[in-house]
Structures are given as C-alpha cells and as structure tokens.
Design brief:
Elements (H helix, E strand, L loop, with lengths): L1 H5 L10 H33 L7 H21 L6 H23 L7 H24 L2
Helix pairs in contact: 2-3, 2-4, 3-4, 3-5, 4-5
Length: 139
C-alpha cells in the first residue's frame, strides 16, 4: 500500500471542481488499467511456467478485475471532498464499461445481457468500498 501514497492526483485540479473530479476519475481508471496489465502479465507468467491449472485462469482474471475495481475506487475518491463511495463506484463502472467496449472491439460478440449488468453491479460495489477507503486515506 506504500505505492498509493506516491501517486498524487493533486495536479489534476482546476479552478472548477467538476473538471478536477473528471480528470481525477480518468487518472484513476488509467492507473487501474496499468495495475491490471501488470497483474495479468504476472498471471500469464505463472500459467506458462508453473503447473497452475488453466481452468482457474478465468477465476484469476475475475479476481484481478475485482482488485482493479477496488483500486479504481481508492484512487478516484482519494482527492474527493465527500461522497467517496459514489466517486469510487462510478469510476469502477467506467473502468468496467471501457473494458467491455475494448473487448468488444477485439472480440466481436460481447454479451450485454444479465451477466454484463451483474458485472457492472459488482464493479460499482467494489469501487464504492474502494471509495470509502480512499476518502478516508485522503484525510
């Protein structure tokens, strides 16, 4: 958790609070994608060079997505003045929506059914928890 203090989103401030919140939210989403990329690379190395059962890879990818949603919430709410749960939850939903849209561009036929909406709900909940953590870290 030491690396959380090194990331400073204070330069995303502007005279208008709304602009700084949007910049901070998208900076948090970008940081979450970076963390996801690193964790997925580590997972790929583990699957390739160990006897890790590939059947568990989908579960591990889901866990990495959950961690990324939580981290997105923490980063998004870190500079918020109030309602960290809302900042974190919405940032995690943006993370999940972008992930699904990018996935649909690469692999056609993305499913926008009940499973997708359930993943958005889970992302919102994890982001809200991260937002609660992040708002308290900022104080």
């Amino acid at each position: 958790m030491i690396f959380l203090k090194k990331l400073d989103f204070s330069n995303a401030s502007d005279t208008k609070g709304g602009v700084s919140r949007v910049k901070s939210t998208f900076a948090a989403v970008g940081a979450a994608y970076l963390i996801s990329l690193v964790l997925l690379l580590i997972l790929a190395l583990i699957v390739t060079y160990t006897s890790f059962n590939e059947d568990w890879a989908n579960t591990a990818v889901g866990i990495i997505g959950g961690i990324a949603a939580l981290v997105t919430g923490i980063f998004a709410a870190k500079n918020a003045q109030s309602r960290g749960y809302l900042h974190g939850g919405l940032a995690a939903v943006i993370y999940r929506l972008l992930l699904t849209c990018i996935g649909d561009l690469i692999y056609t036929g993305a499913d926008f059914g009940m499973k997708f909406f359930l993943s958005l709900l889970i992302a919102f909940i994890l982001g809200a928890v991260g937002g609660i953590i992040g708002i308290n870290m900022g104080k």
